[in-house]
Amino acid sequence: MTVTLITGANKGIGFETARQLLALDHTVYIGARDAERGEKAAATFGARFVQLDVTDDASVNGALATIGSAEGRLDVLVHNAGVLGHGDIDGPKALRVFDTNAVGIVRVTEASLPLLRESSNPTVVTVSSSAGSFWAVNNPDRPESGLPLTLYSASKAAATMLTVQYAKSQPGIKFNAVEPGPTATDMTAEFGIGRSPEESAGVVVRFATLDADGPTGTLQDETGELPW
Predict the structure, then answer these.
(1) Catalytic residue among 129, 130, 133, 153, which?
(2) Spans of all domains in the chain
(3) Is 156 a catalytic residue?
(4) Of the residues 153, 156, 174, 200, which is catalytic?
(5) Residues 60, 106: contact at Cβ < 8 Å?
(6) Is 11 a catalytic residue?
(7) Helix, strand, coil: what percent of the chain each, to 5?
(8) Hey, what CATH topology would domain 3-225 get?
(9) Which residue in 163, 166, 174 sits closest to 215, CA to CA?
């Protein structure tokens, strides 16, 4: 079975991605900061839970050690954990947003690389955003151009660039960033926009199930590659 880890998967797109991958016979590890919420989410459909805070090195290393001990490899890693960081901007908030949305990708990827290299088809999917695309935020016909999300957009631009750089430095592993589409989650509730997490998870699942000859180093939504 395909062994998959999804960060921030106790709700929203991560939760729905876990559910859909389990239906495809993946062994899914739900990573979440809060043990009670994470265990409850995993129990909902028979996933496994690991306590994982992407901003904490010890937590990340412990989660990957648990998976390594149980499985001996990791086939799919989905970077889903993220925060919005909207409202007034200051240094501490900027550090928190970038620590979660960008530095967290580095922490989890670096801890996962030894296990990914044990896979016959290692795949990493980053749930990024077209809100981090210069093309999208400067296009008045795109909704991203009007979103007041300075820190989120900047950190997602960093997340996409990390995806490209890892694809270049780790040619044996596929790395792709995805824009899942505007989604109604707890994080976006105050904007009153978006479709269901079930629908948005579809693009994440598609890139989590690529064949060995699938693309790498791209930013894509459900229609294809996005300029950024």
Answers:
(1) 129
(2) 3-225
(3) yes
(4) 156
(5) no
(6) no
(7) 50, 15, 35
(8) Rossmann fold (3.40.50)
(9) 174
